[in-house]
Design a protein that fits this description.
The structure is a single chain. The chain is an alpha+beta fold. It has two domains: 102 residues, no CATH class; 127 residues, Aminopeptidase (3-Layer(aba) Sandwich). The protein contains seven helices and eleven strands. It has an eleven-stranded mixed β-sheet, sandwiched between helices. A hairpin with a 4-residue loop joins β1 and β2. The chain is globular. The relative contact order is 0.19.
């Protein structure tokens, strides 16, 4: 596993550790839980950070069904692409969809200068309505209560990992935003969103590069984000100076009551 990818993956796990209400050690990884937010899939998922050896998909699924009994979804992320690919067909037979994740580190200069002066740092109370609106616009976001629950989880991120929010307004209205988590010399950018009617105006470029600048100012020498390897934002991040450093695989079994939870406009993990 490349060193920088390992560093990013380990950072993500520290964030999950700090925002969990409980954890369970597995032979091949860790199961994370936040019982206060059961509908937030990424707060209630397993991470395979060790080799699964010769275990089959049936074995992995059985473990997930056991430890996440009572939750309506199942989700597991594999740090090893080889391990994930070895059981991908079997996971599919059990109803799991797979997403190819890519990790990108900020190492270069953007293709053009951003308008960082148009951005601002905002607090949780101001961001919560915007995040809820983003969620409600997704096909899965109309389910009663889910937008409010997922938006409220940002307070957990503020309290436990010091999450910061950067936004840009258009005509006085928040048009787009992203989150930043910094721990020592490492920083992660997350949840990049722009409302559809404001896309094409450089909003995502501005807020992401504002977050990069703030991370550097806070002492981070390594700034990264996760993205869907098959979605268009990864190409935007490339233009902003982010280079791919590795990838993971995310398997999810969606409940029947909803459609696919991620529309992956960003690194929305």
């Amino acid at each position: 596993m490349p060193e920088d990818f390992h560093r990013a993956f380990a950072f993500q796990q520290r964030v999950m550790h700090r925002t969990s209400t409980r954890e369970l050690d597995l032979r091949w990884g860790v199961a994370y839980f936040n019982d206060d937010f059961p509908l937030r899939y990424d707060a209630n998922m397993a991470v395979a950070d060790r080799s699964i050896g010769d275990r089959k998909a049936d074995d992995v699924v059985a473990v997930l069904d056991d430890v996440y009994a009572g939750f309506r979804h199942r989700e597991v992320e594999f740090a090893s692409v080889d391990d994930a690919d070895s059981i991908a067909m079997g996971m599919g037979e059990h109803g799991y969809a797979v997403e190819q994740m890519i990790v990108l580190a900020h190492r270069g200069e953007p293709d053009r200068a951003p308008a960082i002066e148009m951005t601002e740092e905002t607090g949780f109370d101001e961001m919560r309505p915007f995040v809820a609106e983003v969620i409600r616009r997704e096909p899965w976001g109309a389910e009663p209560g889910i937008a409010e629950m997922l938006a409220s989880f940002r307070k957990v991120l503020v309290d436990r990992v010091g999450a910061r929010f950067f936004a840009q307004r258009v005509d006085g209205r928040i048009a787009g935003s992203c989150e930043l988590y910094v721990d020592g010399d490492t920083a992660q950018i997350e949840d990049v969103n722009t409302l559809e009617e404001f896309r094409g105006r450089g909003v995502a470029r501005n807020v992401v590069l504002r977050a990069v600048a703030e991370a550097r100012a806070a002492g981070a020498t390594f700034v990264f984000l996760f993205a869907d390897a098959q979605d268009w934002p990864r190409h935007l991040y490339g233009r902003l100076g982010f280079d791919p450093i590795g990838g993971s695989r995310l398997f999810t079994r969606w409940p029947e009551v909803t459609t696919k939870r991620r529309a992956k406009s960003p690194a929305a993990r």
